[in-house]
Amino acid sequence: MTRARTLDAALEARKADVKAGVSIPDVLELLTIDADPLTGGRGWVCDCPCCAEGRARVSADGRRFSCASCGASSDVIGFYQAARPAGFLQTIDDLHAALTTRGGRGDTETGSLF
Ligand SMILES: [Zn+2]
Questions:
Q1: How far is the CA of 65 from the centre of ligand 1 (A)?
Q2: Residue 35 included in any domain
Q3: How far away, in angstroms, is 80 Cα from ligand 1 center?
Q4: Total structural domains in the chain?
Q5: Residue range of the domain that includes 70
Q6: What separation in Å is there between the alpha carbon of 108 and the centre of ligand 1?
Q7: Does position 64 have pLDDT exceeding 80, yes or no?
Q8: Residue 73, helix vs strand vs coil
Q9: CATH for 28
């Protein structure tokens, strides 16, 4: 089915936009989750969105998190899915909306595909 493949491509493009434009600290702010910055700009720590018992460590570039208690480790999409919680499609929608309403890149979501 060509249509399904087109939808998949659109979804992949939105996912790529989200991964490039939204960081875990952005999600922390979006969902008003408290986080403590580590000294020396080495990242952040916050309550783990997966187990709610451990503390999750967010990498300095804000792209990855990991939890030593439950072993969870993922990217911004995985973090949002666990923290909210939301399904994958909802996560992409929410984060893409946050990306475009924040401004600057809004014109990339519609219009030309190439
Ligand atoms: Zn955990």
A1: 10
A2: yes
A3: 14
A4: 1
A5: 20-98
A6: 35
A7: yes
A8: strand
A9: 3.90.580.10
pLDDT at 67 over 60: yes
Give the predicted TM-score (pTM) of the model: 0.83
The pLDDT-based confidence of 100 (bands split at 50, 70, 90) is: confident
Ligand 1 mean position, distance from CA 4 (Å): 35
Which residues lie closer than 8 Å to 48 by C-beta, 6 or more apart? 54, 55, 56, 67, 69, 70, 72
58 token code pair: 């967010």
CA 93 to ligand 1 centroid distance, Å? 25
Q: How far is the CA of 87 from the centre of ligand 1 (A)?
A: 19
Which of 15, 59, 52, 60 is closest to 33 using CA atoms? 52
Which residue shows structure tokens 């989750």? 33
| 3-class SS of residue 74 | strand
Q: What is the pLDDT of residues 8-22, one digit of tens each?
A: 999 999 999 999 999
